[in-house]
Write a structure and sequence with these properties.
Layout: E1 11-15, E2 26-29, E3 31-37, E4 49-55, E5 62-69, E6 76-83, E7 99-102, E8 106-111
Antiparallel strand pairs: 1-3, 1-8, 2-7, 3-4, 4-5, 5-6, 6-8
């Protein structure tokens, strides 16, 4: 991560699902997700794409990112997670199994040193 100019704890704002930008609420499904940076992350400009996976089995969605793809460049491996304060990745009660209905379309992502 140091080579990329990133440190554990670095953060940026992200649209969680590129297909549901600025929607409210949004529905995420178990499986792959394509997100987009709304603000720069280290040397990666806003509009860079993030690729990761969503899990919806618990009381809130869990989103982990494995790659970032800056405009007109190859994807680069990263280790990042989506987070919002005050339980805002918490699923709405009407979420069906395998889905997470969230109030907001954006969140923050944080660089981590590994997934646990």
């Amino acid at each position: 991560m140091r080579i990329l100019g990133l440190s554990v704890g670095d953060a940026a704002e992200v649209e969680l699902d590129i297909n549901q930008t600025d929607a409210s609420p949004i529905t995420l499904y178990d499986g792959p997700v394509e997100s987009m940076l709304n603000s720069p992350l280290g040397s990666f400009p806003s509009v860079s794409r993030l690729y990761g996976r969503v899990w919806t089995g618990g009381p809130q969605a869990v989103i982990r990112y494995y790659e970032v793809q800056p405009p007109e460049r190859e994807p680069i491996p990263i280790c990042a997670v989506a987070r919002l304060g005050l339980g805002q990745l918490r699923k709405k009660p009407d979420s069906k199994p395998g889905t997470a209905i969230l109030e907001f379309s954006s969140a923050a992502i944080y660089i981590v040193n590994s997934f646990r």
